[in-house]
Amino acid sequence: MKKLTFGLALLVALVGNAGAQTSVSDSVEFKIKNANSGLVLSIPGANQAAGTSVIQWTDNGTTDQMWHFIPMGNGQYNIENMATHQVMGVASGSKSNGAQVVQWADNGTADHLWTMTQAADGNYLIKNVNSGLYLEVYQANKSTSATIDQWGATGCLCQEWQLVNTGTAPYPMPGAVSGNGTGVHDPFMLRDAGGTYWLSGTNNTLASSSDRINFTNAGSALAPIPSWTTTYTKGGMLWAPNVAYMNNQYYQYYSASSMGSQTSAIGLATAPTPNSSTWTDQGIVISSSPSTPYNAIDPSVLQDGNGSWWMSFGSWWNGLYLMQLDPTSGKQSTANTTIYHLAQRSHGLEGSYLYYYNGYYYLFASINNCCSGVNSTYRIIVGRATAVTGPYYDRGGLNMLNGGGTIVLSAHDNINGPGGQTLMTDSDGPLIVYHYYDGNNNGSATLGINRVGFTADGWPFVF
């Protein structure tokens, strides 16, 4: 079918007058208003289903009409809907004229990437990185519920967009923290019976706090460091500890690896207190090599509703996995040796954390690229299941084994690359503890803490 031809009154010289690629703030939510119709992009009825078509609608100020531009580097953006926390993409990753624009989980595909160019009249052209085609209202339709698709440059106002700054932040800022223990990466926090908070992290850091705000360096999370770990760390640091309280003692699980390597191991040490000066080495819990489907790092330990203990783990490669633990040894169960596959994604998936709440097991994870300071594209996603072994689905109905995962927290303002998350239940409810790269402090890794609430249908959000 040939594209409809428009009269001169509707034409603008988009290609000839378009300026250079431009940037968009991630500090606020925007309405995306079509210059031709005056209507705004919307997810009809705030429908959560993955694959729901993006439409245009009368501006009514609802959350499904709010969009968050998440920087992805090279002037590219994911465009996140703030009602569904899915991102704008093209159906089936099509490169064809007329392909519909839909919402989907951030599964790392190029059709979810967009660039912004400002036209001479101040409006924006929004171009899909995968197809090279432009976001538009099909056939310049001015009606509510009209289809949004992609097409080559036509010179039509239907391909021009106005970004209306709502002044509303897409996410709350982290709670206030201070002290020399807040420069942490991959944080894990627990509160002991005496009310002291213990915060451990990558590079064997440990800090304490009496109020969850003021932290003080408390030495090393693990001492001594077992000599066997050097085979995996190659002289580097230990990563991403997780501490569980079992059998009247603390079980510390930690990662021994080196950057980009699948030759990794998760080790275990035990001690009577979380700040013990001497931990007893219990050896390797699980290891990996280039011949295994998983990477044995980033442990997360959970006791299920039946009293059984489990450990999720995994990074990149084929994603996240789960194994049952023996409650006495803290190592793999001999009665159940199955390794369960929980989640997989085409580009960057790690840092799993399991959390039980009100009948569901929630699988939190970090996606995209970590560890690049203010250029980190890390963000936090979640899916849930009624059994700890899965399957885990996101709010849009996608299996996390197929790239699903609802965004819980993404970059905003000076909060770059939030991830490496763990959760805990405190006296005031669930908390999410994570690191971010502070754009106001040279991109330093910094502790973030937010409270977590749950929607009426049981999906977590930060506040």
Mind sketching the topology for me?
Layout: H1 14-17, E1 21-22, E2 30-34, E3 40-42, E4 55-57, E5 67-71, E6 76-81, E7 87-90, E8 101-104, E9 114-118, E10 124-128, E11 134-137, E12 148-151, E13 161-165, E14 178-179, E15 188-191, E16 197-201, E17 205-209, E18 214-220, H2 230-233, E19 238-246, E20 249-256, E21 264-271, E22 280-288, E23 300-303, E24 309-313, E25 320-325, E26 339-343, E27 349-357, E28 360-367, E29 379-385, E30 406-409, E31 415-426, E32 429-438, E33 444-454, E34 460-462
Parallel strand pairs: 14-18
Antiparallel strand pairs: 1-9, 2-13, 3-4, 5-6, 6-9, 7-8, 9-10, 11-12, 15-16, 16-17, 17-18, 19-20, 20-21, 21-22, 23-24, 24-25, 25-26, 27-28, 28-29, 29-30, 31-32, 32-33, 33-34
Could you explain the architecture of this structure?
The longest helix is centred in the first third of the chain and has 4 residues, at 14-17. The protein starts with 13 loop residues before the first helix and ends with a strand. By secondary structure, it is mainly beta. It is built from 2 helices and 34 strands. Strands 1, 5, 6, 9 and 10 form a 5-stranded antiparallel sheet that branches. It has a 5-stranded mixed sheet with strand order 14-18-17-16-15, with no helix packed on it. Strands 19-20-21-22 form a 4-stranded antiparallel sheet. It has 2 domains: 8-165, Trefoil (Trefoil (Acidic Fibroblast Growth Factor, subunit A)), CATH 2.80.10; 178-462, Glycosyl hydrolase domain, family 43 (Tachylectin-2, Chain A, 5 Propeller).
CATH superfamily of the largest domain: Glycosyl hydrolase domain, family 43
Count of β-strands: 34
Radius of gyration: 24 Å
Oligomeric grouping of the chains:
single chain
What's the level 1 CATH class of the largest domain? Mainly Beta
Give the strand content.
35-45%
Mean pLDDT: 95
**Are there runs of 5+ residues with pLDDT below 50, and where?**
1-17
- Percentage of residues in helical conformation: under 10%
What is the name of the CATH topology of the largest domain?
Tachylectin-2, Chain A
| Largest sheet: number of strands, sense, barrel closure | 5 strands, antiparallel
